[in-house]
Amino acid sequence: MLDKLVALVLVSAIVGCSTPGVTVTVTSQPDGAYITSGGPVSGIVPVAAFWEMQSLKKSSRDADGCFQLKGFTATWVSGAVTDVPVVRVCGEADGEYNFVMSRDMSHPNLEKDLQFSLQVQAVRAQNAQAAASQAAAFAAMWSAAKVGQPTQRPVHCSSYNSGSTIQTNCQ
Rounded to two decimals, what is the model's pTM? Predict the structure, then answer.
């Protein structure tokens, strides 16, 4: 009974918090750029910017039927900068879009940006491994805490990096 109540509350919370609009997730090539915009969006990629549908309805579409949204500036550790003042979103006014900021390869110190990109990816892999281990530990605690259920043996997990994917095996 408690499981069903918790599931119902979670579903209600997720559905109730959904606000229609456009989400643009900004990444960079190479990875690791710092993104800024005219608004509150800033940080190392990936960065997500959200426009509510109400504000999009106030905006007019261009001749191709696309919304023109405030763009972004990407700055890499080498000092290379890419500025895109306007991002065109063609499609529904309620959805998710991806936008890649590309570095000007003629700017000096590309090696510095590539090295930083590797460091960013290593940190993300470590964070993913920690999250997987934590999820496995919480699952084991949940199973052990269930009333009327026999105690199960501990879960042992190991994670390893396989290219751009973290593999986690639990026994």
Answer: 0.68
